[in-house]
Amino acid sequence: MIAVLGAGIAGVTAAHFLKAAGEEVLLVDRSEVPASGGSGAAGAFVSPKIGKGGPLQELTNEAFAFAKDFYREVTPHAFHADGVLRIPKNPDDEEKFESYEAYNYRPYERWDAKKAQAAGLHNVPGGFFFPEAGDGDAREICRVLAAELPRRQMNVERLEREGGHWILHGADDRIEAEHLVLATGYESDLLDLRYLGIRGLWGSRGDYSTSRQFPISLHKDFSLSSSRERRVKLGATHVKHPHPCLACDGRPLKALEAKAAEITDTSDFRLLETFCGMRSTSRDHFPVVGPVIDVPRMLEESPAIVRGAKVPLIHHEGLFLLNGLGGRGFVFAPLMARMLAEHITKGAALDKRIHPDRLFWKWVRRVGRTGDKDSK
């Protein structure tokens, strides 16, 4: 049996693909409700990444191509491919759009100010419109995926490897599993995972009532969804302050509302509900997918690694990660989950861009330079 710990978008997609591969799977979460953390607060915008190319843009767009089809097939009522318009953040960014265009995901359309105006936008020079992109209902997507899976509510306090199995210990309960997938997001304190450099990235989202019709979604330095049933979503995932609730002074959406009002009529927006949560991001902003290095054992058996010695890596048996999806969790999760499931069930090689091992040697050299074994 394979236990998947965490019922956010990473965990439910991992469990989905493992079950599809014929494995016995158990989804474990501390909450009765899927997506009770950062995933539930997400805007779940699913769109390509723009930029000047490079591995991260390429991987993001590969994940987008897979995700849009996955949601259309598996959760069609909860994914709305109304298209997303990517707008320059500022005049400097507007100049860069010319250099971005050669690397755009296709199909796309180049919009000018006139076309943006026709869509109800003002003070917008235009942008790139991706017709296959859209947004989803984050909690509904996770609920539907979780509904097909055996589930157990348990607050896991510690992990232990015993007799060829992983033991998940709760206050008054335990679960035994041959394999374990950690999809716990930014809360990664059950094992020594310092080398991953997982950090929290705070996001806020508001659902608003409105009588206005927004036919498309847009993304600037915030995101605004198309309208459905007289509702829109407004959100962003940018706050890196260590105390995000203090940084927003109790009004997490105030700045976003002001930005939205600069480019469209928000006069009848009425806040219905606020969602906030922490996403997880890795040190290099790529997802972290695959086996887990046994850090204490590596440091104990090969202390010279902090001085640059190279030795074979030692991994925890039967333990895997799906983490570090950042603010694009609903873009990355389906493809990353399928890759992980194929690795676990078929022994398929993992893409080097997402393999957790890539982060270990840089981290351990940093430990050697600083002499601080708690180095992040």
Describe the structure.
- Helix content is 29%, strand content 27%.
- It starts with a strand and ends in a 6-residue tail after the last helix.
- The mean pLDDT is 93.
- Helix 1 (9-20) packs parallel to helix 5, helix 1 (9-20) packs parallel to helix 9 and helix 2 packs across helix 9 (329-346).
- The strands form four sheets. Strands 6-7-5-15-16-17-14-18 form an eight-stranded mixed β-sheet. A six-stranded mixed β-sheet has the order 9-2-1-13-20-19. A three-stranded antiparallel β-sheet has the order 3-8-4.
- Among the domains are: 2-37 and 141-198 and 283-370, FAD/NAD(P)-binding domain (3-Layer(bba) Sandwich), CATH 3.50.50; 200-279, Alpha-Beta Plaits, CATH 3.30.70.
- It has ten helices and 20 strands.
- It is an alpha+beta fold.
- The protein has helices spanning 9-20, 55-74, 91-100, 113-118, 138-147, 244-247, 254-263, 295-301, 329-346, 360-370, and strands at 2-5, 25-29, 45-46, 79-80, 84-86, 109-112, 126-130, 134-136, 151-153, 158-162, 165-169, 174-177, 179-182, 199-209, 217-219, 223-224, 231-239, 270-281, 288-293, 315-323.
